[in-house]
Write a structure and sequence with these properties.
With 136 residues, the chain is α+β, with helices and mostly antiparallel strands. Helix content is 23%, strand content 42%. Strands 1-2-6-7-8-5 form a six-stranded antiparallel β-sheet. The protein is globular.
Length: 136
């Protein structure tokens, strides 16, 4: 049974209390997630760190998948790739828009485009594959 935004927010609050990502929307094999950008997310030179953008992409794909299959906590990342396209502009947040490309019984493949705030020009593009555990 698919999970809705409210269920996912509650799941993240309980199981990932350290997560800074905010779920904006989920559904139709996609999700929009934001991550605030503060001093802790910046690298030398004042740009958003790569690990922050990777975290956003991973969470955005995880949210889209759980939005389709329901809360299955042991759905895990099996491969992940990110291309940094340009330096993010100073913004209060980065935004990840994920889309699931293939939903199999045990593997899901998806992509995420990352934006700096509301700027429509992508700053990074990520792809990932996730393993869904077998049903008990």
């Amino acid at each position: 049974m698919p999970a809705n935004r409210e269920q996912l927010i509650a799941f993240f609050a309980k199981d990932f209390p350290q997560a800074k990502c905010q779920i904006i929307s989920v559904g139709n094999r996609s999700a929009v997630v934001t991550h605030p950008v503060g001093v802790e997310e910046l690298r030398p030179g004042g740009t958003v760190s790569g690990p922050t953008m990777m975290t956003l992409a991973d969470v955005a794909l995880y949210v889209a998948i759980l939005g389709e299959i329901g809360i299955v906590p042991l759905t895990v990342t099996t491969s992940f790739n990110i291309n940094f396209l340009r330096r993010p502009q100073p913004a209060q947040f980065i935004r990840g828009e994920s889309r699931l490309l293939k939903m199999g019984k045990s593997l899901v493949v998806g992509e995420v485009t990352i934006y700096s705030g509301d700027d429509p020009t992508p700053v990074a593009h990520a792809t990932g594959t996730y393993s869904i555990p077998p049903q008990q």
